[in-house]
Design goal:
370 residues; alpha/beta; Isopropylmalate Dehydrogenase; 2 domains; 10-stranded mixed beta sheet; two-stranded antiparallel sheet; 14 helices; globular; binds nicotinamide-adenine-dinucleotide
Length: 370
């Protein structure tokens, strides 16, 4: 299969972790005979330096002409003083809007080898494996009016607005995902208080009959926030509106214990998507070769699965990550206070790529039989 991928490394550790993504893509090419044409472009601070804007036209064009986008991270202290309308983060908001990315997927999965890294008890986090689907382009963050009023500006107004069709798109995406997983969908709202939530619930119930094999549960957002901490194992796919999703996905990310491990995807209605690790540009460790590249590597696996329909290839990348962790490989963020050998970014990438080579898979299989 031939695919074009727009690659936007961005700032700070963005470039360092993106090297991992590119090596893993190459390993998938070698293994399966696919061809990935990589088109690199600037975004964020580096784009401000080169083009005077965080989202240059050329970058947007490269993304639009590609089948998917990989993004590293943007921002850093160097651009703290630039005018607010051209801050690096504006590049991110801009690209999501311009590409029509309406739904954000955040898989929350604890790796067996890393259960100790979670701040919660092992018995709570063991086996956690679910996805949060967050509506990304509507709700409180975009509704109008949004203003300060009154003689002394003593009134502030934000507007939570949704149209049915916006909810339908993201809810349908969540049902589709659930139907391919453990067939349980949890829809999160605040229907006891908010009109928009009552419509959200109505839409979920209207679409449910199209997916008869998916069990549907409605949870109020406050109850969902509690259950994420004491019963995270009960979730398979969770779907919710923009602000609830923003908060719950950050809460859930703490279950796994490390920001450096988390991938994400922002999707359009067709197969196109933008894939990026959840973490930022980590200026405190940038340039030191210490960054954990696995969140970026797992973002590549998501791209293979969701945009290219390459399930086997995605499974292979994820299995390689799982295996190197099982054998004890750790970047500094994963080692915590444990006294263990610590791998640098490049070493971790090499281990993943080695693990993906056919002879390694064979030796694993042989080992299982011996
Ligand atoms: P951050 O995610 O960059 O870093 C938070 C902490 O986690 C730091 O101590 C960092 O060293 C550590 N960390 C993050 N990723 C890691 C990795 N892969 N391996 C090891 N350790 C890792 O968040 P921040 O410090 O709040 O923000 C720094 C900059 O990044 C800011 O300019 C912010 O606006 C930007 N940011 C960008 C994105 C994005 O591009 N999507 C997301 C969040 C923050």
């Amino acid at each position: 299969m031939k695919k074009q991928v727009a690659v936007l490394p961005g700032d700070g550790i963005g470039q360092e972790v993106m090297n991992g993504a590119l090596e893993v893509l190459k390993a998938v090419e070698d293994h399966y005979g696919h061809q990935f044409k990589v088109v690199q472009a600037d975004i964020g601070g580096v784009a401000i330096d080169h083009h005077g804007t965080p989202l240059p036209k050329e970058t947007l064009e490269a993304c639009k002409q590609s089948d998917a986008v990989l993004l590293g991270a943007v921002g850093g202290p160097k651009w703290n003083d630039v005018p607010v309308e051209i801050r690096p983060e504006k590049g991110l908001l801009g690209i999501r809007k311009e590409l029509g990315l309406f739904g954000n997927l955040r898989p929350i999965k604890t790796f067996e080898a890393l259960v100790d890294a979670s701040p919660l008890k092992q018995s709570v986090v063991q086996g956690v494996d679910f996805i949060i689907v967050r509506e990304l382009t509507g709700g409180l963050y975009f509704g109008e009016p949004r203003e300060r009023r009154g003689k002394n500006q003593e009134v502030a107004v934000d507007t939570l607005r949704y149209e049915k069709k916006e909810i339908e798109k993201v809810v349908r995406k969540a049902f589709e995902l659930a139907s391919k997983r453990r067939k349980k969908l949890t829809s999160v709202d605040k229907a006891n208080v908010l009109e928009s939530s009552r419509m959200w619930r109505e839409v979920v119930d209207q679409i449910a009959p199209e997916y008869p094999d998916v069990e549907v549960e409605h949870l109020l957002v406050d109850v969902a926030a509690m259950k994420l901490i004491y019963q995270p194992n009960q979730f398979d796919v969770m779907v919710t509106e923009n602000m609830f999703g923003d908060i719950l996905s950050d809460e859930a990310s703490m279950l796994t214990g490390s920001l450096g491990m988390l991938p994400s995807a922002s999707l359009r209605e067709d197969d196109f998507g933008l894939y990026e690790p959840v973490h930022g540009s980590a200026p405190d460790i940038a340039g030191k070769g210490q960054a954990n590249p696995l969140g970026m590597v797992l973002s590549v696996a998501m791209m293979l699965r969701h945009s290219f329909g390459m399930k086997e290839e995605a499974d292979m990348v994820e299995a390689a990550v799982e295996e190197i962790l099982r054998t004890g490989a750790r970047t500094a963020d994963l080692a915590g206070n444990q006294i263990v050998p610590v791998s640098k970014t490049k070493e971790m990438i090499d281990l993943v790529v080695e693990q993906m080579k056919p002879n390694y898979a064979m030796s694993g299989i042989l080992a299982a039989y011996l």
